[in-house]
Hints:
Layout: H1 6-28, H2 36-45, H3 52-59, H4 63-75, E1 79-84, E2 87-95, H5 97-121, H6 123-136, H7 146-151
Amino acid sequence: xxxxxxLPLLLFAGFRSxxxxxxxxxxxxxxxxxxxAYGFALQAVGRDGVTPGELGRRLGVSKQAAGKTVDRLERLxxxxxxxxxxxxRRKLVRLTPRGVxxxxxxxxxxxxxxxxxxxxxxxxxxxxxxxxxxxxxxxxGMRLDxxxxxxx
Length: 152
């Protein structure tokens, strides 16, 4: 039987492998400045945009930390600040076409990386691995606050 600490280390190493490969490909495809935390933030912004305060809540960080992330993403051209059409006093953070592009490319790269794992391990084993993880991950387990969690 394996030591208990091996499981989280292996899961993290698998995650890290996928993320490192993703970012290497993104750099080759014109997105060399994207960092893993930015991916979480761009996902949290979503299609409809978000207020900076809500972005902080979604990421599990302070409004100030979310604002710094927005500043960086805005400088890189991935998001923009715009007036909220429902409340002129508020600003929304929205994806720019460059932000949408990096998310679309990321999805395609993740599909290729998964296919690579399936080619190496067998499609059935990868399907079983994903099914097993879904059984142990709490409901609503796809949280975007990992960046804040790692940083705390």
